Amino acid sequence: MNDIPVTILTGYLGSGKTTLLNEILKGAHGERIAVIVNEFGKIGIDNKLIIGVEEDLIELSNGCICCTVRSDLTRTLTELVESKGDAFDRVLIETTGLAHPGPIIHSFYSDPFIFDHYKLDCIVTVIDCYHIINQLERSLEVKEQIAFADMLILNKVDLLINETDLNTIKNKLNITNPTANLFETTFSRIEVDKLFNIFSFNLPDKLEIQSTVTKEKAHQEDIKAIILRSDFPLDVKKLDMWMNILLDLMAPKLYRYKGILHIKGSEKRMVFQGVHSLLSGSLDREWGLTEERVSEMVVIGRDLDEDWFQKQFQLCVAQ
User: Fold this and answer.
1) Where are the chain's structural domains?
2) CA angle at residue 185 from 180 to 188, to 5 degrees?
3) Looking at 20-24, 27-31, 176-180, 305-309, which range is the least confident one?
4) Taking the mean position of all CA atoms in its chain, how far away is CA 159?
5) What's the pLDDT tens digit per position in 247-303?
C-alpha cells in the first residue's frame, strides 16, 4: 500500500476542529478514513456508530477507523499501515489546539517508511471567526497555524455582526497567508470532498496569489507573506545560491514558501515549494504560447525583512 493521502487538521482551542471531525466520523461520505487523534474522550464518538474496539483503535460503521497517537506520530503511522493497511484509503490527523504544524509536516519527509507509504494532501486550519481578531493579537500559535495552511475554514461566521467584520478577518488572514483557500462555515459544516484530494504538496499547477494587502499593513505583522515577482527571466545558478543562503540563515523562520519561476534558457516552468529547510522543486510543463512568462514566489514566515527579500530576488535576474 503506497502513497496514502494525509490531511492534517489544525486550529486553535475552541475553533471547531473537533466538531468538524465529528461531522466526518458520522458522515455517509463513502470514504474509508483513518483518523488519528490525541485521545478519544474529547471526540465523543456516537456509540451507535461503533462496531468494534481493538486496544487504541475504534472501527466505525461508515468505514472509518479512529486511533490515538501512542508514543509518537511516526510510530502510530507505521503501526497503522502494518496492522490495518487494507482497512482505510486515507488518513486525517487532528492536532492539539496549541500544535505547531511544522514538526508534523517534517515527519512525512524525515522517516523513510513514512515517506514511502504516505503522501501529504493538505493542511486544513479551522478559524474561530468570533474570536480570531483577538487571538491574532495575542497568540503566536494561531498565526503559525494560519501560515502553514492550504485551506482556511472560517467557522462561526453566523456570530459576526456584519459583512464588514468578515472582510476585516479575511484581510488579516490574507496578510499572513494569501495562498490559502477560504471556506465559510457554521458549526464546521463542510462537504468532506472539499477537504480531500487537494495535494498542495505535489507542486501545484499554478500558484494562487490573492493578496490585496498593502506593504504598510504587512509590515506591522510578525508573521506575514511576502510576494516576490519579476517580469525578467532568472539565472538558475544565482537562484540556487540565494536559496542555499536563505535556508542556512532563516530556515526556522520560513513556514511555507512556493513559486513558479521563469528560468533563462528553459522552455519549462520551474515549480517549487518548501517548509522550513525542506525544499522540493523541478521543471514542470512548458510555458503556453500566450502565457505570460513571469516569476512569482510567496514566502510566509516570521520576522522577515521584506526589503531584503525584494532586493535579493531581483539580484537573481539573468543578465
Assistant:
1) 4-194, 220-314
2) 100
3) 27-31
4) 26
5) 999 999 999 999 999 999 999 999 988 999 988 888 889 999 999 999 999 999 999
Dihedral pair phi/psi, residue 263, rounded to 5°: -100, 130
The answer to whether 94 touches 114, Cβ cutoff 8 Å, is no
What is the fold, at CATH topology level, of the domain defined by 4-194? Rossmann fold (3.40.50)
Give pLDDT tens digits for 39-82.
655 555 554 544 445 556 676 766 777 887 766 888 889 988 88
| CATH annotation of 220-314 | 3.30.1220.10
Closest listed residue to residue 282, CA positions, set 271, 292, 290, 296? 271
Identical topology for domains 4-194 and 220-314? no
pTM of the model: 0.83
- pLDDT at residue number 299: 94
